[in-house]
Amino acid sequence: MKKNYLTVALVLALITFCIKQTFAQNDSIPSSVQQISLTFENSTIKDVLVQIEGLTDYRFYFAEAWLGDGLVSGSYENESVKTILENAFDDTALNFYILNDKKIILTKNNIIYDELPNGFFNEDKEDTIVEGNEITTQVITPVFYDLGNTARPASLETVRIGKADAGTNKNRFTLQGYVRKQNGEPIPDLSLLVKGKGTGTVTDENGYYRLELAPGQNLIQARAMGIQGAEREVIIYNDGTLDFELSESLEMLEEVVVQADAARNVEEATTGTTQIESEESKNIPLVLGERDILQVAKSLPGITSAGEGAVGFNVRGGKTDQNLILLDNAVIYNPSHFFGIFQALNPFTTKGVEIFKGNIPAEYGGRLSSVFDIETKDGNVEKFSGEASIGPVTANLALEIPIVKEKSSLIVGGRGAYSDWILRSLDEESLRNSSASFYDGIVKYNHKFNERNDLRVTGYYSHDGFSITSDSLYNYSNRGFSLRWDKKFNDRNTGSLIVANSRYEFGIDYDGESNNDFNLGYDINETGLKLKLNYFLNDRHTLTYGLSGKIYGANPGKISPEGGESIVQRISIPKERAFESGIFVSDEFKVSDRFLVDLGLRYSFYAALGESEQRIYEQDVPRNEGSRIDSVQYGDYEIIKTYGGPEVRVSARYFLLPDLSLKASFNNGYQFIHTLSNNTTVSPIDTWKLSDTNIRPQQGNQYSLGLYQNLKENEYELSLEGYFKTSKDVLDFKTGAQLLLNETIETEVLQGEGQSYGVELLLRKNRGRLNGWLGYTYSRSLIKFDSQFGEERINNGKYFPSNYDKPHDISLIANYKFTRRYSVSANFVYQTGRPVTYPIGSYQFNNAEYVYYSNRNEFRIPDYYRLDLGINIEGNHRIKKFAHSFWTISVYNVLGRNNPYSVFFVTDNGEVKALKSSIFAVPIPSITYNFKF
Fold it and tell me: What are the record keywords, sorted (predicted)?
């Protein structure tokens, strides 16, 4: 290589000698100081060159293909030709060299040197320098390109990036851009590797990447599961942009897509982060054959629920209201149908979900335990396509409709249930008179205006209606809307502006035989605005910063008589309002090749707003109606009470080995909104309560530490992570509390402390005939309510298990492929029974027997376990056919385990009876037909 440099150097020296001789023989005024006057408006580069030639004796030499179609403007008075050309070429890849014989030579990307750089002949100067684990590339100017590389494939595309600058002293240049499919959909988690250099990067959720390259020749390889690989030969002269447009791989249909997370698991700084693609639920047997990424999430360590059929998630020992669930940035308060049995998301329009259960990024606020960031797919901008399924109780349909080819499209999805026929076929008469149905719909429009501007608009609605008894109809609904504008300001700055609105409603229509018919309902509504900006400072610092704000409006409940003869009294709890905002900044700081730190800081602010009446209670006595001493009235949007404070989000990763990393994190947060429930499991009749003068916001801290390793070229993924969480002002209820339609709700609730800790183990196999994962969690979730007053103390003020405390949790997901078309799958779950309060004695009153209960949650219901099996049959893989089909035959709860949902006790005819309720006590077979066109 040094001999090649020496040969080129001799040639350059000869050229330099000739150029200097030309300078010496020509005594004309140097071109750099000769001045002219020139004005041009929206002119091509060629037109500008022609004008300069007409005003001077200069002649230009160039290849016309280099000039492009761009237009330039300028006005100059007595300015040098050199300055005019520098300004005109500023946004192009053109350089120029002026000879004193009135000749101007144009070059593309590179520049002409008239002398060799200092130290060029230094034999001790190497191309690369290795210091410990650091590898740096030394600048050798000019950039040389090896034309004699016979191993280079003829089909390999060569791309030249940037414009050489003789004044730069950088030994690394930044290449960045976007990676998209041919339909315009971004490709996240795609690996970009620089062959032979030991460096690379991974695209983010929007398909954006940033890569540091040595000057000169680089071979970049793009790889991702489900995507056809690509290579580009990049000759880089300065910072620049390169976008990739890649095709999907035909083998995408035969895999459970898990490979994208493999390298990220070890490399990223954040702890407790999980990504689930919608395709992962394709081969997992779930109840009644439904694809459900949220049920898949429950099979991962650290995520569970209070029981089968319970709504919501308990993440690392947290309450269900401590999870922020987003659908395209709009909050979804209840992401389930029929008490958690089905998800309220169309699997064919859902791209995937990213779950933050450890270190939550600074851009998110308002919840303590986790963030479920669910993303909808972008529609196909090339051709009309769709996907549908028909199952025992539901039917799904999704259509992708191009609006402007290669620019915009619409994706429309709808689901509906027709489960009433099952209820009518049951032997139980009360159930035959029941009904249960739901539907949901989603519409998303995506438009790509240009390489710098993208727009996405999403609308979502879901509705549930069910009647377990003949006289009551329950219904609840979710509504969400979001608009997101992504803009690339330049090569270093990008940003997103997000507007979102969400609404959740619940209602009961009671029509009985007596004259007490009524309508009952409540709702919560929020509207938010968020500005998020990204700044790529350099190869060590990537900044994310912005601000957000939202307005809450909550109607805690109202009841009104139904019909003219109803004796029900009309009650309406006053509306609540609040404003919540946050400002955030984070820095992903690459300390070294081994050490990466993500430093985040958020300041959250909350203000309870009027119109409202706030009650004042006497201090140092139990809070009840008797201790109320005054009340204060607040007008419309008048500030009642403010809360807030800083939130620290810090996580770090250190490579112990190239495929083994150690991570640690700490984060704290505030939560200003609460759920009120006196049930052991969350149901749609739980109401939401905003913090005010009498109910304080929740606060929490979490510490995490874990080891992460990938084996056999990312075929196996292994992680072990421990955590410890503390919280305060957690809401619970007093014994016998009345929470629904209670205007003085603060007299019925308690605020205490929480504590949870655990260890999570995950072993995942990403490739091969057998793939899936095994997860195990040991965890404890404890709460304490202590007070100087006995009526405000639970279990003598000591820590006791929460309703969702399940120390042992084991999940096994496995899929075995016999061929490309046939596979079998299994899902096994084991969990410790959740806590319950049992009677430990009895007493007689009015000739009836009543029970005396133990301390709260002192006992446990029987342990839970379940096995599901499925057979998956793919259609043939011919390329030219109208649709691709897929059959799923599954049996839920193969063992017929009668897992108790709850255990409770009643007094019936003077006797105490123990009752147990179950959701699915027998095997549930199903068959589902899916097709994609």
Answer: Receptor
The answer to whether the CB of 317 falls within 8 A of the CB of 700 is: no
The boundaries of the domain holding residue 921 are 261-932
Asked, for residue 123, whether it belongs to a domain, the answer is no
The interaxial angle of helices 81-88 and 45-55, nearest 10 deg, is: 170
Query: Rounded distance, CA 686 to CA 739, Å?
Result: 9
> Could you report the per-residue pLDDT of 47-69, keeping only the tens digit for each?
999 988 888 888 898 888 888 88
Q: Which two tokens stand for residue 852?
A: 């005396």
Task: Tell me the three state secondary structure of residue 52.
Answer: helix
**Pairing relationship of beta strands 493-510 and 518-536 according to DSSP bridges:** antiparallel
503, β-bridge pairs: 479, 525
CATH number for position 455: 2.40.170.20
Residues of the chain with pLDDT under 70: 1-34, 116-155, 167, 169, 225-226, 249-263, 287, 309, 339, 419-434, 468-471, 678-685, 848-851, 877-882, 904-907, 910-912
Q: Note the pLDDT tens digit of each residue in 229-265.
A: 788 888 888 888 888 888 776 443 334 343 444 567 7
Question: Do residues 102 and 157 share a domain?
Answer: no
Task: Give the Cα separation of 866 and 295 in Å (integer).
Answer: 14
Tell me the chain's radius of gyration from C-alpha atoms. 33
Cβ contacts of residue 97 below 8 Å, gap of 6+? 104, 105, 107, 111, 112, 114
CA neighbor of 603 nearest in space, from 546, 660, 564, 687: 546
Q: Which two tokens stand for residue 717?
A: 């993924």
Q: How far apart are CA 385 and CA 412, in angstroms?
A: 11
Q: Please name the amino acid found at residue 877.
A: H
Q: Which residue has the tokens 């000869």?
A: 14
The verdict on residue 253 lying in a domain is: no
How far is Cα 458 from Cα 444, in angstroms, rounded to an integer?
4
* 692: nearest Cα among 792, 626, 617, 609: 609
Cβ contact 332:345 at 8 Å: no
The answer on 517 and 640 residing in a single domain is yes
Site of tokens 């998110």: 364
